[in-house]
Amino acid sequence: MSADWRRYLRPGVTLPFCPGCGHRLLLRHLLTAIDDMGMDIDQMLFVSGIGCGGWIPSPCINADTLHCLHGRAVPFAVGAKLANPALTTVVVSGDGDLADIGGNHLIHAARRNYDITVICANNMNYGMTGGQVCSTTPVGATTHTTPDGNTFNPFDLCALVRAAGAQYAARYLVTQGPELVGAIRRAIGIKGFSFVEAVSPCPTQFGRQNHLDGVKEAYAYVEALTIGKAACREPASPLDGRLLVTGEFANE
């Protein structure tokens, strides 16, 4: 990976993430992809909503960033893109912000095929507000609002946006650095709506509530939930008790 990703950070910035948070890795992968592509960051806009994922672009990236209302990152990004079609517009926000509070905006942006890239930092809970259940929480996981375990199936976000009309969708763990960097590069380079889900462990809220004793255990929990697309029967979907299929899912 490129060693130049740090030059895109705001001078003197202190990364606002808990120890072991996967969002640190996602920030690195995003900036590495931008550096590898030779993007002019002055011609880019990063949009985020509320939550831990919303802190990935702002205040970290030394570029134009728009930190907006909870669940409204996608329509703000669409408005900016319509006002300035030459602007490379990237949404970076969390699963609660994009799929719960802003779920309708997400699917309609995919349906209308707006030329934006959406990167979802999926930590499987509302990490910033105390660790409540959300639409991506695994079945059986405990949260502040599901102390006896979540009983509802989580969204397959890649399948959701593909069904709505996304041109490209991919899902990787933040520990799959080269694969995630490549997916972000392809997503940004596509004309039309593209989506990348970065599965990002939350050792602080999700980890503690599920009795994961440290960062290593939190990452092992997430890794145990995943299975590569190549190991799945078609169509790629949750199989063999796993909840997350990693890989690329592009519409033809």
CATH fold-level name: Rossmann fold
Helical/strand content category:
alpha/beta
Report the mean per-residue pLDDT as an integer.
Answer: 93
Low-confidence stretches: none
**Could you give the order of the helices and strands?**
HEEHEHHEHEHEHHEE
Helix content: 25-40%
Strand count, sense and barrel status of the largest sheet are: 8 strands, mixed
Query: In total, how many beta strands?
Result: 8
CATH classification, class level: Alpha Beta
Q: What amount of the residues lies in strands?
A: 15-25%
Description of the structure:
- The chain has 8 helices and 8 strands.
- By secondary structure, it is α/β, with parallel strands linked by helices.
- The protein has a single domain, classed as Thiamin diphosphate (ThDP)-binding fold, Pyr/PP domains (Rossmann fold, 3-Layer(aba) Sandwich).
- The longest helix has 16 residues, at 22-37.
Name a few traits of the molecule.
alpha/beta, Rossmann fold, eight-stranded mixed beta sheet, 8 helices, globular
